[in-house]
Amino acid sequence: MACVYALTGSIGMGKSAVAGMIRKLGVPLFDADAEVHRLQGPGGKALAAIEERFPGTTGPQGLDRAKMAAIILAHPHERKALEAIVHPLVFAARQTFLRHHVSRPLVILDIPLLFETHGEKRVDGVIVVTAPAWKQRKRVLARPGMSERKFRAILRLQMPDALKRRRADHVIHTGTTYHRTRGQVRALMACLLAQAGR
């Protein structure tokens, strides 16, 4: 049975970069965000149910993210309805991934809203990716279509970084150079693989 660790971190903390480093080291990693994009993309399994609940938000290209974002910003409670459609499908894909990699000593689940959805109870440990607040803000505001208002709205939905760090088993700092971050990731993966008996 694989040892299962979750990788999480708030927006703009460098989690995607760390996930890429883990993959390059050959450790299987399930990306919940990428799965959501597949489910909501062209021909995605979630589209029919989303269209039924939110008419006019999907088309041949999949989910119209701008339309959905506008709905959720105007009516925050609607996020729960969208999550009720998407989360069970992501969970099913994650279970398939875990079955596929059951013989591996270590697998990583990249789950952005891990603590917010109480997912930490279903894993053996948690890795939190962090960076200074000023660097987080700079990274996020550099993204296309991002605004200060949207950034603040996203932060309100996420557990504060300081609290995530306190609840983590391991912390990766990305407020440094790429080389130093990669060194942290390599050292941690070696440690976890050793603990898993590899």
Task: Estimate the global geometry from the Cα principal axes.
Answer: globular
- Give the tally of structural domains: 2
CATH topology of the largest domain: Rossmann fold
- For CATH, the homologous superfamily of the largest domain is named as P-loop containing nucleotide triphosphate hydrolases
Q: Number of DSSP helices?
A: 9
CATH architecture of the largest domain: 3-Layer(aba) Sandwich
Q: Please report which band the strand proportion falls in: under 5%, 5-15%, 15-25%, 25-35%, 35-45% or over 45%.
A: 5-15%
CATH class of the largest domain: Alpha Beta
Amino-to-carboxy terminus distance: 12 Å
Order of helices and strands: EHEHHEEHHEEHHHEH
The helicity comes to 40-55%
| Average residue pLDDT | 93
**Rg, Å, rounded:** 17 Å
Q: What does this molecule look like?
A:
By secondary structure, the chain is of the alpha/beta class. It has two domains: 125 residues, Rossmann fold (3-Layer(aba) Sandwich), CATH 3.40.50; 59 residues, no CATH class. It has nine helices and seven strands. A five-stranded parallel beta sheet has the order 2-5-1-6-7, with helices on both faces. It has a two-stranded antiparallel ribbon with strand order 3-4. Helix 2 packs across helix 5. The mean pLDDT is 93.
